[in-house]
Please model this.
Amino acid sequence: MNTPSAHPWILGLTGGIGSGKSAAAEHFAALGVHVVDADHAARWVVEPGRPALSQIAEHFGEQVLQADGQLNRGALRALIFSDPEQRRWLEALLHPLIREEIADNLAQAQSPYAILVSPLLIESGQYTTTQRVLVIDVPQALQIQRTLKRDNTSEEQVHAILKVQASREDRLRHADDVLTNDRDLEALKTEVERLHDFYLTLRGGQP
Model:
């Protein structure tokens, strides 16, 4: 019988916008896997009362705060999307804090393996902290179609986000496993279950 090792190995899960990585992560979580979402960690480090938020307000001015003191993400996004230097400043502030938040959360995992979900797993170098990488892959036309439907956003904005994210080829080059999510949710869940069974046989993320 396999007894879980003291330290779960870490699977990095990524995919471009609209690929269905959140749906895949939810199903892994439903199967009992400890899932840490880098986006949630990124939101948590800028909560009111955390030091990062006051530094951001000091740097960009009060317009990046909402009336209730929360970060105004739309205003901040508009400021950094058009200015690479400001984006680099923000990343230099937030990335170490997000890394720490993620590491603390992953350290609490009790499952045989844990998952780090991150849209920027490759670009941010987060994949180096994982033992294996799963890419949820989807043709770009379908990515755009799904995102427009889900986020009620403009095609221009979707293309801007795609530009910041790693190219599909780059993601696939880093992948140990690829799940092609071009069918329905049931098909996605079946693939997740198949991968989960396989992952339970691995030690340290390797066969």
Summary: The radius of gyration is 18 Å. The domain at 9-33+111-207 is CATH 3.40.50.300 (Rossmann fold). The chain has two domains: 9-33+111-207, 39-108.
